[in-house]
Please model this.
Amino acid sequence: MKSNPSNCDILIVGAGIIGCSIAWFLRHENLRILILERSEPGGLATNAAAGILGPLNETDRPGPFLDLMQASLALYPDFVRDVAEASGLSPDFVPSGILSVATTREETQRLKNRWEWQNQHTPGLEWLEGNALKNLYPDLGPGVSCAIRYKQEAHVMAPRLLKGLLVSLAHEGITVRTGATVRTVRKAGKTGLIAETAQGETIRAAKILLTPGAYLNEMDLPLPVPPVFPANGQILSVRAPGFSLRTVVFYPPNGYFVPKLDGTVVIGATEEMVGFQTRVTPGGILEFLNPLKRVCPQLLSYPLQQTWSGLRPKSPDGLPILGPHPSVPDLLFATGHHRNGILLSPVTGKLLASLVLGKDPEIPLSPFRPERFA
Model:
């Protein structure tokens, strides 16, 4: 038997970093906000993320996507400071910079091609090779021939950032309810929307924001619905308290490693389209461990601490899906962030909050709107 309908102003479906960031930017608007989560907050994507904040390593060309990522990175210092002050929890934001390195002739050419357009687009980048590279980063392996240094890029401990957001939202009276799977969203007459859960609850809301990550297409929604696929990523960490290289290192196309403040180094990551499986396999791990023999063999000698995998929500074109439903404007999407959910969380929160409040977003959302798949 279904329960009597409950009411709220804003219903957010999904309590990962994206849903909680939107609620964060709406927290002072005197709105009744309810967040529903099917499992545990951040369980499939946020809690599995390495927390890299590296716009220039996430696209191969200038354009709106890079602009969106760089705008979000610019928001990060104030964002993490405010979350830490509100919650009393540090998200371990580290403006360490990022190195993107090459070890073969083919990788060197790709890196040079990247350097050519990035150096014109973003000032302050550095090309390093030879003794200049070895003197700055003696812990890199002898196979590393050159690198681009991105001084402005950073990393954060994603689970701690999410926990800080959750604590802050609770202080603001925003309810996060777990174990609530939204199955259906439909119009409620001329105004408002109704969500029905698998647990038999009916919720009426003025606006509904869909931030369920890879599970968007598991719901019955008004058509058209943009496609989102789960992309499994394998990752591991080693315990390395004496590791002296403190910057994030990308070694494309194979992987990356991220030295964290707690003495661990996170190493990843694969991408596999295997449905909703979360799995760790020897073959997957070898994809990013084998290249470390050339990039940083020292990391292979540290004790293995943990392995895990997560599901990143991926759209067909790899871009996030942001904005209102093309025919149901009170139903809004914020998903498809793929590898960049942590990086894009503050800008997504700010832009979607503007849409909820009927304001024009500061950044044009036309490249990311859901109707591009209609």
Summary: The chain has two domains: 6-48+159-228+317-373, 98-151+229-314. The chain has a mean pLDDT of 95. The longest helix spans residues 64-87.
